[in-house]
Amino acid sequence: MIKILTIVSGLDGGGVENILLNYYKNMDRDQVHIDFIVHSQHQGKLEKTFKEMGCQIYHVTPKTISLKKNIIDIYYIMKNNDYDIVHSRMNVKGVTHLITAWVCGIKVRMIHNHLAYRPKTRMMSIISFVAQITCKLFATHWLACSKDAAIEMFGKKAVNTNKVIILNNAIEANTFEFNPRKRKILRDEFNIHGKFVVGMVGRFHEQKNHEFMLKIFREILNRNAKAVLMLVGDGELHNQIYEKTSLLQLKNNVIFTGIRNDVPDILQGMDIFVLPTKYEGFGNVLIEAQAAGLKTFTSLEGVPKATKVTALIEYISLKKSAAYWAEKILGYSSGYKRVSQKECIKAAGFDIEDNAFFLQELYINAVKKISK
């Protein structure tokens, strides 16, 4: 059995974490075993599920508290547990993980980028440039969730010469298929029958642009009194956004669901999905929304066009006004037919079974190659 140490910021049900869960659920756990390093003392909502699957989860000191302690914590985990592979999914921040793995003699070292279009200050650009070069030196495998994320981290030349492995953020399409019964249950739960429900799923972080979402929704509500905004997730800006709903007099029309482990069902209850994000490495929730048959709107500048796997998605510039976004969204307020998108998802290469097998074989073959 091959032992893999995957390094993440947390396991609290965010996009990357749910993708990891989907992948591992569909891999042969007699052939590969995955443990996790988490950069927090917080017990994430997905940890119980991973532990039930046999995963060991190590909580280490976050770099923001002590870089030295973080490196020491990770060094002892790597040194004492005979891992075949280290797979850091923390973008350019994984540079220290790769160096530590190299020091510990771990032969297969993977760096995985999940971000693109991220705005940077001059200092951040310099630090990122140095870290990127170091990552490329110490990693044996370069991975990214999309072509855009690959270019951001490794450059166009590396992508054009196939040095970067693009690993799709695959989903279990069957679980997202539109289901009228689940829709009714969800709308019963939140008492939103007869409402025009605009939904957004994402961490409450500056990246996701919740403030602009509230401005869009205010324009929608001014034109449609039956509109409701459903915000799914949690994060450091939760309280700030909650207070903003009061300032904008939206409080009675905005639902904060918190973190949910039933996003496929939540999507059934929505009428429109909106993600005005400033930047994404990919934007997996956009695939999920399309799989649920939802008309989907997202930002032109911040999202890779590889997310267009059906005709349901539309890209709008963040330079456009909130009123412009609202007008586009309200064009579907009278309803539309929601049909299965499963075949489109599979044809676009986002089927979880195919992708999980690909990653499993990547792990196995990487270790075999090093062994030879």
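Second entry:
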Amino acid sequence: MKKLNKKDFLQISFMIFGMFFGAGNLIFPPLIGKESGVYFYLSILGFSLSAVLIPIIGVIEVSKFGDIENILEKIGKKFSIVFLSMLYITIAPLVAVPRAASTSYSIIFENVGDKIMIRVIYSIVFFSIIYMLCLTPNHLVTKLGKYLTPVLFTLILIIFLGTIIKGVSSFTPPLEKYSKLPLLQGFLDGYSTLDALTAVLFGVILQMNLRYKGIEDDRSIRKYIVKSSILAGIALFSIYSMIAFLGSSTARMFPNTKNGADILSEITYYVFGKFGFVLLAVVFTIACSSICISLLTCISEFYYKKNSKISYYKWLLLWTIVSTIVSIFGLNNILSFTIPLLLLMNPITIWIIFLTLTDKIFDGDILVYRYTTYVVCSFSLLSILPKLGLNLEVINIILSYIPFSKYEFAWFIPTFTLYILLIIRKRLYFIKK
């Protein structure tokens, strides 16, 4: 039985880090740090629960079942098809991938402005390179784990240490949304990274790359996924904490910054001068490239598996073209729809991960999987209707009676209550039997 050496193990861990760490992962923590001020440590802890802990658990749990589809089919085949289609298409070609390309463009051409011709040329060149890097999905560990991610990790560490050495200011008071429940607000902020959603999709690619490294038996594959995922999670939490600290500790120095990219631009210029812009452009380009490679590879593998008559390369070309078009023309409109979509998809994904984690408690009962997930879907959908313009009085009345609905957790109490009741029902059934 072949074992991974330390070098290969680190590469797998770095690959997992790179698969998660994209544009949003760079932008959100410094802004959270600035806005939460003295409570940044609580906010980033909440952020890490939804953007690190849950995604890492998701990767590990999906690996135990072999594939996310094996889990979703417990809920229903139709649900599996609809949920996965929404998940793949929204987070890859419609939101996460175009967002990453657009973010890297805005950083590199910050002083040029948003000129459509430059954006078109940049998007075509960017996605042409991404397409070529995605042609061999079983070599993803080499591209991300050996080259891109270690460089990215090192550059972020240099920016952090450089800022500490240069000197920082005192923390500011938190904004209102962080002053009462900073941990919960940070948790909700973590939704925007899309990591909980992408986590359940990465299992196939991880298994493919481990087999490429010579690890064949399922037990060893699961073992290495668990160990490397934990290490990647520690690295992600460390980086988020560093970047959030920078945002919080420089808030008085750069009070007029409006987003995470602005904060990092000011910090790198403060520490490294004009070279700071070059450094930041490289960091963003690597981070954005990593997430684009990961997601386009996953969605192309998924649809090739569903319809092998169309080759992986043709699926890859299709989704790359769609991502290119969206990044040029339609990103702003789609991003306005992102928040309601995340408030719908994230609770469902988080609950499914929870079910896999507690599967042994209810002996994998199909009814628990099915009915509790339907309740999550129902209450999550009910919660986002006002955000989609359907501000009906009856919906507002219903939501007002549901605990935690104003914190976007209307689904939690009803779902968990049904979960407990179904487990009690199962226990009583076996006692009577």
